[in-house]
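A quick word before the example. In earlier lectures we treated sequence and structure as two separate objects. From today on, think of them as two lines of the same record. Here is Regulatory protein, tetR family written that way.
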Amino acid sequence: MSMRRIAADLECDPMAIYRHFPNREALLDAVADLALAGVVDPGPETPWDQRLSGILAAARSAALQHPGIAAHIAARPPLGVHGLRLAAGITASLTEAGLSPTAVVQTLQTLIAYVTAALAMAVNAGVRDERWHRVSQAMSGLPGETLPIVGSSEQFTYGLRLLLHGIRAEAAAGGSR
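And the structure line, produced from the sequence above:
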């Protein structure tokens, strides 16, 4: 279905959108996929780890630019043309990393779980409020100077870096071959 056709129908009747989708979930799935339309896959000429982190960080950023649909993206990763395009880029990156086909699928699932959980936390992220100060104080005996805000870009980047190190180690160990 063409977005132009949908837009034309909406000009005449705002409820016309429901003629193009079988149910509310299908409509939200389409909107979620459209939110990822601008996410660029750096392509196979980019080293696998940079390509992978670029896709995942850009997908998170794109989802957060649309707060009304971000929670839906976190709950139901898009399977439309844009979601599948990004999944293909992620899969190609993991293959280039040296993982076996089985490990590629398992790692893809793990990365999707990480990104969707991080996205859900970002949607619900707060500020350094009273609760944050209480948690920070409770953790004051642990190493480190500050406690990042749950769902922050800083926390996401750190977790992604850990996952990339794990992928390298898995590939070096034979990648579940």
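Notice the following. Residues 28 and 48 are 31 Å apart (CA to CA). We will return to this example when we discuss secondary structure assignment.
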